[in-house]
Amino acid sequence: MGSSFTFGRLFAAVVFGATLATGSAMAADKGNPEAKRIVSIGGTITEILYALGAQDRIVARDSTSFYPDAANAKPDVGYMRQLSAEGILGQKPDLILMEEGSGPPPVLEILKASEVPMVVVATPPKADKIGQKIRDVGAAVGLAEKAETLAVKTEQDLKALAEDVAKIPGAKKKVLFVLSLSNNRVMAGGADTEAGAVIEMAGGINAAPTINGYKPLADEAVIGAQPDVILSMARGSHHLTPEQVFAIPSMQTTPAAANKALISMDGLLLLGFGPRTPEAVRSLAEQIYPGAIN
Asked: Per the count of CB atoms within 10 A, which of 96, 228, 252, 281 is most buried?
């Protein structure tokens, strides 16, 4: 936080955040079963709506909402962190449903002032919060019963997966999630990230526990981490090839480079923390520990 961030600005941010949360809570508490023109912001939110059979009620979605494929036919209102109030309100929504962290804040303030019901769904990167996320989405659109069924199944699948992962023999492997590369610097996933949580759920050790969030990792830290496996996303501008990753000087002395051990997975599947997370984690565990998990 820079020195120019005044107490007044901090106070305003807190007051606005509390007001937004209160308005969102009211919309969520009463539900919106009659909503027919939902703007869905956040890939996992959209995925859950489709899983609940509410896809015909979605009038538009953001650019991170590309699963299932049918979602791509919906109008795109832009990236969830760079939204336009005009673009969203132009869809004439009767409900705006968005993931926590969407923005920017001035756009959220405009949306709130529009009086269109808006529900912000918490998205902590924790396995034991996935069920609640599903329930929150279901409650927001009047499909609590269907959401409960989906949430329970997801929680049961996660429990079964955890039991299988616990049986993996041998030493745990260190896995480094690489979000991107720039000027031979690694942008890694550290503590309190979806990437770090997924790695641990799959029986691995996050190789970048000393940083919080997604941040550049010093060359010395990469060398010192000695990751056994590199994990990256397999879609769009974040897609990385083994040639790109292992050409980085700090990577060249790692076990991962020696074995060309790079796992690429769809980013929404891997980091979405939704109904497909058990599938994602099982797939990751199978790739980290070939033949060791059923």
From this structure: 96
**Is residue 137 a contact partner of residue 120, using CB atoms and an 8 Å limit?**
no
CB 240 within 8 A of CB 251: no
What is the three-class DSSP state of 43? Answer: helix
Please answer whether residues 120 and 18 qualify as being in contact, where contact means their C-beta atoms are separated by less than 8 angstroms.
no
The residue among 86, 91, 95 whose CA lies nearest residue 26 is 95
pLDDT for the residue 113: 95
- d(CA 177, CA 192) in angstroms, rounded, equals 13
For helices 277-288 and 144-166, give the axis angle rounded to 10 degrees. Answer: 20
How far is it, in rounded angstroms, from Cα 55 to Cα 71?
8
Residue type, 147: A
**DSSP bridge pairs for 274:** none
Is-contact 273 125, C-beta < 8 A? Answer: yes
Q: Say how far apart CA 136 and CA 120 lie, in whole Å.
A: 9
Q: What is the pLDDT of residue 9?
A: 32
26: which residues sit within 8 A by CB, 6+ positions away? Answer: none
Report whether the peptide linkage leading into residue 169 is cis, meaning its omega lies within 30 degrees of zero.
no
- pLDDT of 16: 38
Bridge partner list, 57: none
| Confidence (pTM) | 0.87
Chunked mean pLDDT (size 10), the chain, 294 residues: 34 37 47 95 98 98 97 98 97 97 96 95 95 97 97 98 96 96 92 97 97 95 96 81 92 96 96 97 97 86
CB of 282 closer than 8 Å to CB of 269 = no
DSSP line for 87-153 = HHHTT--SEEEEETT-S-HHHHHHHHHTT--EEEE---S-GGGHHHHHHHHHHHTT-HHHHHHHHHH
